[in-house]
Amino acid sequence: MLNRRNFLKVAGTAAAESILGAKMYALTAVQSEPTEAVSPNDHIQIALIGAGIQGQGDTKTAIQVPGVKLVAVADCYDGRLQHSKELWGSDIFTTRDYKEILARKDIDAVIIATPDHWHKQAAVDAMKAGKDVYCEKPMIHLYSDGPEIIEAARSTNRIIQVGSQRVSSIIYAKAKELLASGAIGQLNMVTARWDRNSSLGAWNYTVPLDASTETCDWPRFEGTAPKIPFNANRFFQWRKWKAYGSGVAGDLFVHLFSGTHFITGSNGPTRAMATGGLRFWKDGRDVPDVMLGLFDYAQGFNLSLRVNFVDGGEESEGLIFTGSEGTMEIAGNTVSVSRTPLQKEPGYTVGTFTDAMQKSIVENYRQKYPATHPSEAPFVGVEKYVAPAGYSDSFDHFKNFFSAVRTRKPVVEDAVFGFRAAGAALLSNLSLERGEIVKWDPDSMKLI
Question: In this model, does residue 376 exceed pLDDT 90?
């Protein structure tokens, strides 16, 4: 089990090593401390707002953190309120109106896992009600949401953690350390992807048989979205429409931005250009199922992103950091460095010259660049770092959040970080919509 306070302890020797120079290391740490006692005064009572797939998954992870208890759930579908009682006990308070939860004095923090278009209002209302907030990504649905959430956190002195859990991962922490150490030299490009090839991966989630205006609070679900008659598909598959979600940019690009920003220490890109469209899932949705984006960073590297819902293979996610002396790849719970250092010598091409000229040039060259002894040559090959079996960065992300709730110390992904990640991701939607390059100031977090 893992604890972030000792997350980067690496085995003293390689777990496996080949004659070709491939080395594998096990990242070891403790995710929780079984002997750590949590006093009754330190217990945290939480509520869930939005009990869909992500919300229920988040809650199952959150209550594994010692000293955390779920007491209330809000959702617009009665079936999910009933299932919450099946999961967590008949004494769980349930309601369609999250404001009833915010009015309760026995709730310390809330998990917000609503559709994107409700993130801002639910988060602001919760913080003004004195609750700390764990808000799913993307933090924003509209650019105007960001400053409001940041200001609410500042003025109420509430903790807010945005739910891109990769910033709490020991794999991403190791990647950050490796990059900073110069393991791949000077970074010049990051390539990231998230590919899917299934109906469920394309958000075609199951609609319950009892979906109706009786069991679903459609007006409350719509919120600020354009008003239309009840539509069960939009209610349960809301990511497919930009009125409620943010497409692949808000669902998946934002994870890749969060990881990139954490590892590189960047605030975000300055320019973005995106293309894509509906290539396969032409079922009435109005967001792309294929999107590609290119982004410029002032730190001197470019980011290339790709999401494809018609991939033709298994679902996969990964990032490749390309530097002047090698590459670093994150895939699943591993990070690998393929090291190919630049030659210290410039080399020479003399084969077309006379024998005498060749000899003269080589003699002069060796005076300037003495041959390096093999023992002094830098390591060339692959080094791979692997997280323990069963490792969960989501658990670490919640553990960091609840620690901040208790201590009032900063979280790893506050509202500013969350806005910069989501703001960068949504540049893709804006560029595709306008058909042009869009510019962003990552420091002031404003469109230019």
Answer: no
CA angle 250, 301, 312 (to 5 degrees): 50
Which CATH number fits the domain that encloses residue 308? 3.30.360.10
For residue 387, what pLDDT is reported?
95
Give pLDDT, residue 340. 82
3-state SS string over 161-179? EECCHHHHCHHHHHHHHHH
Are 114 and 53 in contact by the 8 Å Cβ rule? The answer is: no
Closest among 344, 342, 64, 416 to 185, alpha carbons compared = 342
Q: Are 336 and 382 in contact (CB under 8 A)?
A: yes
Count CB neighbours of 284 within 10 A: 11
- Does residue 207 lie in a domain region? yes
Q: How far apart are CA 60 and CA 280, in angstroms?
A: 34
Condensed to tens digits (0 to 9), the pLDDT of residues 174-203 reads: 999 999 999 999 999 999 999 999 999 999
Number of structural domains (the chain) is: 1
**pLDDT(141) > 50:** yes
d(CA 361, CA 351): 11
- Rounded to two decimals, the pTM is 0.90
Q: Which two tokens stand for residue 152?
A: 């609410």
Rounded CA gap, 415 and 418, in Å?
5
Side-chain-facing half-sphere of 305: CA atoms under 13 Å:
32
- Given pLDDT bands bounded at 50, 70 and 90, which one contains residue 21? low
Q: Does residue 32 have a pLDDT over 70?
A: no
H or E stretch at 396? helix 393-407
What's the domain range around 337? 170-342+376-390+416-447
The answer to whether residue 159 sits within a structural domain is: no
Question: From CA 132, how far away is CA 137, in angstroms rounded?
Answer: 16
3-class DSSP state of 56: helix
d(CA 276, CA 205): 23
CA distance 53 to 72: 17
Give the SS3 label for residue 153: helix
Residue 140 covered by a domain: no
